[in-house]
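Quick one - inputs below.
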Amino acid sequence: MSLTVAPISRPAGVRRSELLLRARELSIVLALLIVFGFTTLKNHEFANAASIRQLLSGASLVALLAVGQTLVVVTRNVDLSVGSVLGLSAYLVGTLFRAHPNAPIALAFLVGIGVGVLIGAINGIITTVTRVPSLVVTLAMLYIVRGVDAEIVNAKQIDPTLIPHSFQVVGYEHIFGIPWLAIIVAVIVIAVGFYMRSFRAGRDLYAIGSNPDAATLAGVPSGRRVFTAFVVSGGLAGLGGALFLAQFATVNATGGSGYELNVVAAVVVGGVAIFGGSGTVFGAALGALLLNTINQALVAAKVSAFWNQAVAGALLLAAIAFDRWLSLRVERLESGRGERHVV
Amino acid sequence: MLSETTPPQTATSGVVQAPPTIRNPQTNESSWRGLLRWESALLVALAGALIYGHRTTNFWNATNFFYIGLNIGEIAIMALPLTLIVITGEIDLSVASMLGLSSTLLGYLYLHGWPIGVAIVAVLIVGAIGGALNGVLVTRLGLPSIAVTIGTLTLFRGLAEITLGAKSVGKFPATLTKIGVIPIPHTQIAYSVGFFVVLAIIYGVVLHAMPVGRSIFAIGLQPEAAHFSGIRVKRIKLMLYVLSGTVCSFAGVLWTMRFATSRYDAGTGLELNVVAIVLFGGISIFGGRGSIIGVVLATAVMACIQQALTLRNVDAQVRNIVTGVLLLISVVLPNIATGIHRLRERRRLRNRDRLAQRAPDLHQPTTTTTEGQRA
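Output:
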């Protein structure tokens, strides 16, 4: 009957398989180093500080959204509305500045997060109450939010002149050589990663994703946890919208469209199983960094930018195939140990 | 149905087992009626869409019907193979990228002096290969189809980008590009709609009147059971992906001819519309349920509403709200319906428990624990 207890109290023998799973994140780091190393050999400019800063800040937004997405995907759900949420939030924050040019920066971020939390809550309620697959719910929300965004924007756009300088600083300035964007995102990644690893609610997410029925029987408040995951994902996408505006200082009705696919790609490359139950936010953030580094590397190696998408797609397929192979290995290791097989 | 699966003396036998066992047999049983109800709902929606259109100027104009068809043709065609894939419980998100890839490839080959007929055949073969790639990854490596097809969504679009870059190819033979300007002679039907109707009939017959169709439903309802009853689950799924790739590349050919240009970004984002139509057509995302008629009706409803909104100068992005809301309604309503049904069943069972509790004395201790467990 020790069915769902596994993630909390680990028997000593699981350590080897856990090591293999940890290898997932190491493999991304390794891939990152290889890409970085080879590109630097071809083009020495790639390793200078400005270029590295660009790598970090370029990956920040996708990494931020990937954190929220990880929470959702780990529970065996998906949030496809993040790109639209980011766009709407960015525009509304811009509208705030248009109406009140001296609005405090904190308020701007709160507006962004608030928009995201609201939409995340709608996603969460519909998914948990009506038990509709989140793929469909968030796909519908992708359309609806984008449509509402277009209606509000009404073919206008936010101009850089409207955005106060103090707000833009967050988007492109750096401190001690590290972009503010990257610092903000790194803090969030570490905080959420720690929470997912060490707190009960975080572990619950994994339990829900591994086996929803077992989790419910074991007393995990599944509905509430999944709802929270959607709210966090929405909130981070909303924060991403504010940061998007800070970074680019302009946004129109198409801002952030297509982000959802990049985010899902980053999460999957980062080793989060699409059917839930495993993966970490660190992996997802590294996945975002890897995808962005490859894109930049292609530019630096003077490969046409037209190759970006194809490489990203091939990498994605390779990543899921690798994950499958890895999980088969883990399964074999674990079933080698008699008493776990019996369960 | 219910009395067969749950023993009448629930009070004595089933404490934990009662709620889970209600669910499965019941969904199978009512799926038929649910389906019929969904299709009649779509008919009502179609009537509503037409009434809405009626109040829009120029809606009943003959050429408007040509444009309605023209704008939805390729999407509708791609929805057909996706319907079968979703019924088997899988998904294909790479459809629109395949359309883009085939459009690009057609332009590239034509630019390099291939005769258009040969180029089209080559493009269809590439479509089949792309579909086979999806199929092999899903069935032979056992990877989740949503992740695989998000990967090939990016990959196919990327290959299209590599093939043509920022260029666009035009000057296709006028005999073919006329499909974007004039309807089938003596009618107001766009060529793509003509193809859609023919394909829909074929798909309808295959899905609803042939053994293979029954196998497809069986796979969606219970893959293991289907496998053990001798259905070649993997092979059928693989074939469906190949079919999807081929049909989508055919849609790409139509798309290219309609716009008389070939560009790498042809049809970007259309996969969402295709999925929306399939689900709006009453195909269950969990597989095993749905019909071609539903998808055809859903196509008609979607096309009419979109066209009426276009005639009213509603912005394309804002029109997406309608697509999204329809999509939500199509999944939320049936789920709420089954939810209410389930609630009612549970209440009935509880009442039965209560009756059992009142009757004989010897059941008293067990029934009190039942109530305790439930609450």
